[in-house]
Write a structure and sequence with these properties.
Order of helices and strands: EHEHHEHEHEEHEHHEEEEEHEE
Mean pLDDT: 94
Low-confidence stretches: none
Strand order of the largest sheet: 1-5-4-3-6-7-14-13
Radius of gyration: 20 Å
Shape: globular
Distance between the termini: 44 Å
Number of domains: 2
Structural class: alpha/beta
CATH architecture of the largest domain: 3-Layer(aba) Sandwich
Number of helices: 9
Length: 327
């Protein structure tokens, strides 16, 4: 009788760490006149469920476009990478993982999958589902923040590091430069990066993807206020804030904001803090940069990567890029 490999879990970010980081982000982000909350705090259980619903909406093209590229070019990706380990940054529900796992299994060398995310419980559930389909695969969960814990990811073997979903676009340019440089520093000879990035297109199409007719994205956006209520003793009334999706032409990114419908003061008891809002005042909750292929190649090159291949540029919808560190 074959014994399945155990699922290994490395926790570098505990629930207490997350709460402390949330408190720091909220104290810093809501104290000034320009208010913001980082998008990582969308993803509690409700937020993760709402986002999965968003990916199935007719207006939300990125997930479908990326999945199409993965399915179409999976064999090429596996051949170029020649990897025995798949590392997935921001793995979440691991919903796109099977396409890559199947291709890498068929290529012949796959032995390990390393999902990396901030959510311990979410990763454990997803890993158990994968275990049923890939009985002989080593699964090594890493719970951490990719701004702090990239160096904690297992480095042995030949790795394909996947950063998908256009998540790179949630970082402002300085953050992207630092992230890509830091990631490059953790990668060795034979490793490859697979990057998914959304492309610049008709702004109306982009805005509709972030402001769907059914209002699911609006609920997803307002849910971050419920996270603050539950985690920090805040007294936000989510319906007192209007969901706003706005195209920023200068920076080439979509902005999601929450706009106060009235003049109000919101207490955050655990921080001994009261936040004042004028009517119409906004909280920036997410940016999502849209790129050109030349921009993606330039940013990868500047961070020390050599681009091996790109797929999707001709369609102008979404881009997959595979690159290796310059050694």
């Amino acid at each position: 009788m074959n014994v399945q490999p155990e699922i290994v879990v490395d926790v570098h970010l505990t629930g207490d760490d997350l709460r402390q980081k949330l408190a720091e982000d909220v104290r810093r982000g809501l104290a000034g006149r320009t208010k913001r909350i980082p998008p990582v705090w969308f993803y509690d259980e409700t937020g993760s469920r709402l986002f999965e619903e968003i990916t199935r909406l007719p207006e939300y093209y990125p997930t479908r476009a990326e999945r199409h590229l993965l399915a179409r070019h999976r064999s090429q990706i596996a051949d170029i990478a020649g990897a025995d380990t798949l590392v997935e940054l921001g793995a979440g529900a691991c919903d796109k993982t099977r396409v890559l796992l199947d291709a890498m299994t068929a290529q012949g060398g796959l032995r390990r999958y390393v999902p990396f995310d901030v959510s311990d419980d979410f990763l454990r559930v997803a890993a158990k589902d994968l275990r049923a389909a890939y009985a002989d695969l080593d699964i090594h969960i890493v719970v951490g923040d990719f701004h702090e814990h990239l160096g904690r990811i297992p480095s042995d073997g030949r790795r394909l590091v996947a950063f998908l979903g256009g998540t790179i676009g949630n970082l402002v340019p300085d953050e992207r430069r630092r992230f890509l440089f830091d990631l490059n520093c953790t990668m060795g000879y034979g490793d490859h990066l697979l990057l998914g990035s959304d492309l610049v297109k008709d702004p109306d199409r982009i805005v509709s993807a972030y402001d769907d007719a059914a209002g699911v994205t609006a609920e997803f956006n307002r849910n971050v206020l419920r996270v603050l209520n539950r985690q920090l003793g805040a007294a936000f009334e989510p319906q007192d804030f209007e969901h706003v999706a706005r195209w920023n032409h200068q920076d080439q990114w979509i902005e999601m904001r929450l706009r106060s419908r009235c003049r109000q003061t919101v207490a955050i008891d655990d921080l001994d803090m009261a936040v004042e809002f004028d009517r119409g005042e906004e909280i920036l909750t997410e940016i999502s940069t849209k790129f050109t292929p030349d921009q993606v190649e330039r940013e990868l090159t500047d961070a020390g990567f050599v681009v091996d291949a790109m797929w999707g540029a001709d369609d102008g919808e979404f881009l997959l890029s595979i690159a290796h560190p310059y050694c």
